Amino acid sequence: MKQPHSRTRPPLALLVVALLALAACRDDAPQALGTLEYDRITLPAPAAERIADIAVREGERVEAGARILTLERVRGDAQLAVARADVARQREALEELRNGARAEDIDQARANLAAARAQARDARAYLARLQPLGARQLVAASELDRARAAAGSADAQVAAARAVLAELDNGVRPEQIAQAQAALDAAQAQLQAQSVTTGRLDLVAPRAGRVDSLPYRLGDEAPVGAPLAVLLVGEAPHARVYVPEPLRAGVEVGDRATVLVGAAGERRYAGRVRMIRSEPTFTPYYALSGRDAARLSYLAEVELEGEGVSELPAGLPLRVEFAR
């Protein structure tokens, strides 16, 4: 009996061979694995204060200037009040120096000088009366010495009172005014710094983006510099991949690439290399020479292009194929 001739076998065989060839070609394409990422902005804690209010949730999109959370302001407001009071004190001290001595102070200095001169005249007169008696040894030598010392002390008090009056008449020195001005400038700078610190107790978004993480909760007290919020910003995500050493020499900034997003690479986007590190991300001690050097990997970023890119979520696995 004559066997029927099948017309489907040759085309089917050719199709299988063609698919295998395409798969082999696809596997041989230079690839790098990674994840889909956005640029990240971290908002650090400006002060070690308790979180009093949280205005957003993780995953929420915010505009630039939107309030993220608020820290307790009691201590910050008190420190701001102290800085303002110090500025006021330094300003009044400078104004006092510029205005000079009051007329009442000058009159008091003149009265003190007149009293010192009267005491000096009395001391000198007493000494003049004792000197002849001392020459005839009618008074003790110690009494004459005390009178002479009292006269000298009275003359010194006159000189001191005269100097005080002259200082008031001449006014303050320019160096004193300059020092007072410098103290005022320092107090104003401290007030400005404290105002900025207190103002930052209300954390706001510096750019439009999406809230990726809020590590602390309501009532927590984070240390200074701890990340209170992490924002994902940028119009589109980028592929963050690790380029193996065999491909590193052929990848440069500006090169075109194809980004396959998803575990199975179901979404395909055009891309362009925007950054690649010159140093490997991880260098084991045995990978510096020989065949193990192929284990080195270099961090790279590839910009995605095309419609719908901005709607992709961060964290998706992907692979990048570089053009040969």
UniProtKB/TrEMBL annotation:
<keyword id="KW-0732">Signal</keyword>
<feature type="signal peptide">
    <location>
        <begin position="1"/>
        <end position="23"/>
    </location>
</feature>
<feature type="coiled-coil region">
    <location>
        <begin position="80"/>
        <end position="126"/>
    </location>
</feature>
<feature type="domain" description="YbhG-like alpha-helical hairpin">
    <location>
        <begin position="78"/>
        <end position="192"/>
    </location>
</feature>
<keyword id="KW-0175">Coiled coil</keyword>
<dbReference type="InterPro" id="IPR050465">
    <property type="entry name" value="UPF0194_transport"/>
</dbReference>
<protein>
    <submittedName>
        <fullName>HlyD family efflux transporter periplasmic adaptor subunit</fullName>
    </submittedName>
</protein>
<dbReference type="InterPro" id="IPR059052">
    <property type="entry name" value="HH_YbhG-like"/>
</dbReference>
<dbReference type="Pfam" id="PF25881">
    <property type="entry name" value="HH_YBHG"/>
</dbReference>
